[in-house]
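sanity check this chain:
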Amino acid sequence: MNTGTLLALAIALVALACCSAVLLAYGRHSRRQLEARLKRLDSQLGELSAKVALQEPSFSLPLPWTSWTLSASCLLRIRESFAKRTIRTVVECGAGISTLHLARFLAPGGGRLVSLEDDEVWAAAVRRMVEKEGLAEIVTVLHRPLVEHRVLGHSVRWYDVRSPRDLGLDTIDLILV
């Protein structure tokens, strides 16, 4: 999404907020309903603002923001956290647009990102994106299928990784799930 589109969406959200205020004035909706709507609009506007902030630097390939993607506001908070702390080694569970952003956040400090992906085709696609963006020195995208693990007596499906050494790492500073 380009900045112009995001700006148009932000203007539309503000217009919706104004319409909500008018509806309140005419008593068509309860105060509680309008407060809930305004809260949702505020959240959406925050997400749009975060996407605008993450547009620099932009990537040469369009990547989808899906329901599986870390939200733009979450990525923005992670970027702020990286600026305040020494985080050099990150493991990400699930690859995509967040992989490219995380790599850019880690690049100035010489960090490393290992991204786990259970879908082999998507892992290969993300690897190509990483290479095209010139981030292959920082990012390793690994195909790791989901397998059954026993945790506290329960069976759960999770990435086929037993220790950091399985990922070629000695230590991990941050794991993003």
